[in-house]
Design brief:
618 residues, alpha/beta, eight-stranded mixed sheet, six-stranded parallel sheet, 14 strands, binds adenosine-5'-triphosphate, ATP-binding, EC 3.6.4.13, hydrolase, RNA-binding
């Protein structure tokens, strides 16, 4: 007969982690109470003297009485537990919680509510491709590249890297962060590229470049946050160009092959601008004669792909795109991402924002191998950072200045101007500086009205907004960039990330509701180390919360706060609430529960659900 499993010893060499031996040394078998009593009595009878036996018997009786009393108590507790209705228990929990809550300060309550909303947002699906999500694929290591910093930089201590970052106000987070590099020449960039950058007055890396370029060259996923106009475009394009160069040099691309990577932008204008930069930089390399020509495709709505068929007829290295057209091209298999390994999202917060999220996921599904993913923006609220972090592999966060903070090279002036006086005052305002000037309005009709008014007054103005045709938008940008037109009137959406030379003055005709948009708009001036002015009109129609965000932003940037803004009270301060920045939009004047960005996002989401229900979709 087989021996009882309890007694069986498994005779194999012991594993270091698992114990197959059931004969545990610490094992204490259960002995019933009656048996224990008998054992104790037996022990008692073995005592030699009568007095010893009497004393021990008394002790034993006391012990047994105590044990009986304890058991009876436990039985009673169990009985009441079973008999008490669940509702009563729930009521008690509720009362206990209410009492605890009453003890909490307003700050704690607000923090708890914020944490709950954040947790709800964070529970969204991971930003990974549908394929990866479905198959449960997740990579654990960053992409390997052959690049490494020069030996003398590799030999520096962590403390030296830390001091350098501190000098440039760079905050980093992540594992094994590549070192910051203060000179382009130490980044192992081809000489012809260095010369070209020099000819464009780009001689020393900006803070986001000196930490961001080595990070990306090292193959690391990254979240890059830096002020408007601080040179983010070079920080993400250069790594892609170098990667493409390496691949092309190893084995030249032929028709149907490529691209190596893609830069995704939220607007056609921004994509066009980035594309032009990539063309200039790759052109500079090819002119050198030592490097091959890299081919770049601009993939945006509103332009005919036929125009670019010459690019598709060759091997393709880089694609700069907006999401919609890119998905269309990938679905039509004009090219594939089968061998692509680099994805960068410019203005990533906008891109990940509700609405674009599914497009991004869809685009990721076309990648067939591990990729390096970079996210860049001037404003990157904590919500997006948290969400994005889960989608990247060992990401490095490079943050230059508080996410969402304004560029300190912009002098911010806020003026109270009555609605009906705005147009007339605008003319006066235009006298403050020489052109070029950009005027922003949140409303397309207002953009048209302002342009018409300025044209009537003899001001050379062009206008750009979402309802203009692609030709009209291109004409406006071209004539403004070339200096043929002095003033550009633009809707907020069209403004993000556009880099115009030496804008002297930004006039915000209608203050955007979301403070992030304000930061992007004033960021069209004060670029690449130059200073600029931003004048913003506010009045009774501006929501008080927006004014509060503005007040705090001005205070943070050390700007003058006009008296009418100074008088606006923060309700959170009155309630003793917290004055931290909103984790969703970065605004300093409100908490998450009344964030305008969240409201807008929810509205957009509901609208898209409605459209989908109607069989529409977007
Ligand atoms: N290292 C540098 N030194 C001087 N100028 C630079 C440097 N890097 C970039 N620039 C210039 O600074 C300007 C702004 O750069 P870029 O458009 O990349 O800024 P950005 O950070 O992307 O801004 P935004 O957030 O508004 O998109 C460009 O005209 C660019 O040529």
């Amino acid at each position: 007969m087989e021996s009882s499993p309890k007694r069986r010893r498994i005779s194999r060499s012991p594993s270091p982690t698992y114990k197959f031996d059931d004969d545990d040394d610490d094992y204490v078998p259960y002995v019933p109470v009656a048996q224990r009593r008998e054992a104790k009595l037996a022990k008692l009878s073995s005592l030699s003297t009568v007095s010893d036996r009497t004393k021990a018997k008394k002790q034993l009786e006391e012990l047994l009485e105590r044990e009986d009393a304890e058991r009876e108590e436990e039985r009673q507790r169990e009985k009441t537990r079973k008999e008490r209705p669940l509702l009563m228990e729930a009521q008690e929990v509720h009362e206990r919680k209410a009492a605890e809550n009453a003890k909490k300060t307003e700050v704690e309550k607000e923090e708890e509510a914020d944490a709950e909303i954040l947790a709800a947002i964070a529970s969204r699906r991971k930003l990974a491709s549908d394929l990866e999500l479905a198959k449960g694929i997740s990579y654990t290591d960053s992409l390997k590249t052959s690049w490494q910093p020069p030996k003398y930089i590799r030999e520096r201590t962590d403390e030296q890297h830390r001091r350098l970052r501190e000098k440039y106000h760079i905050i980093v987070d992540g594992e094994d962060i590549p070192p910051p590099i203060e000179h382009f020449s130490d980044m192992k960039i081809p000489e012809s590229m260095l010369q070209f950058l020099k000819s464009k007055k780009i001689t020393t890396p900006t803070p986001i470049q000196l930490q961001g370029i080595p990070t990306a060259f090292a193959g690391r996923d990254m979240i890059g946050i830096a002020f408007t106009g601080s040179g983010k475009t070079l920080a993400f394009c250069l790594p892609l160009i170098m990667l493409a160069l390496e691949e092309e040099t190893k084995l030249p691309f032929v028709r149907g092959e490529g691209p190596v990577g893609v830069v995704l932008c939220p607007s056609r204008e921004l994509a066009t601008q980035t594309y032009e930069n990539v063309l200039a930089w790759t052109g500079a390399l090819a002119r050198d004669g030592k490097y091959p020509q890299l081919n770049t495709l601009l993939c945006i709505g509103g332009i005919s792909m036929g125009e670019q068929s010459h690019v598709l007829n060759k091997g393709l290295h880089i694609v700069v795109a907006t999401p919609g057209r890119l998905i269309d091209m990938l679905e039509k298999r004009k090219f594939t991402f089968n061998n692509s390994k680099f994805l960068c999202m410019d203005e990533a917060d906008r891109m990940i924002d509700l609405g674009f999220e599914d497009d991004v996921r869809n685009i990721m599904s076309f990648f067939k191998r591990q990729r390096q993913t970079l996210l860049f923006s001037a404003t990157m609220p904590r919500k997006i950072q948290d969400f994005a972090q889960q989608s990247l592999i060992k990401p490095v966060l490079v943050n230059v200045g508080r996410a969402g903070a304004a560029n300190l090279d912009v002098l911010q002036v806020v003026e109270y101007v009555k609605q009906e006086a705005k147009m007339v005052y605008l003319l006066e305002c235009l006298q403050k500086t020489a052109p070029p000037v950009i005027i922003f309005s949140e409303n397309k009709n207002e953009v048209d009205d302002i342009q018409e008014y300025l044209l009537l007054k003899g001001v050379e103005a062009v206008a750009i907004h979402g309802s203009k045709t692609q030709e009209e938008r291109q004409y406006a940008i071209k004539s403004f960039k070339s200096g043929a037109k002095d003033v550009m009137v633009a809707s907020g959406v069209a403004s993000k990330g556009l880099d115009f030379n030496d804008i002297q003055h930004v006039i915000i005709f209608s203050m955007p509701k979301e403070i992030e948009d304000y930061v992007h708009q004033i960021g069209r001036t004060g670029r690449s180390g130059k200073t600029g002015i931003a004048t913003t009109f506010v009045n009774m129609t501006t929501p008080e919360q927006t004014l509060l965000d503005l007040k705090y932003l001005l205070m943070e940037a050390g700007q003058k706060v006009p008296p009418f803004l100074r008088t606006i009270e923060d309700p959170r301060a009155a309630q003793g609430g917290s004055l931290k920045g909103c984790p969703v939009c970065g605004g300093l004047g409100h908490g998450i529960s009344n964030c305008p960005k969240l409201e807008d996002a929810q509205r957009r989401q509901m609208a898209s659900h409605r459209a989908a229900d109607d069989g529409g979709g977007y």
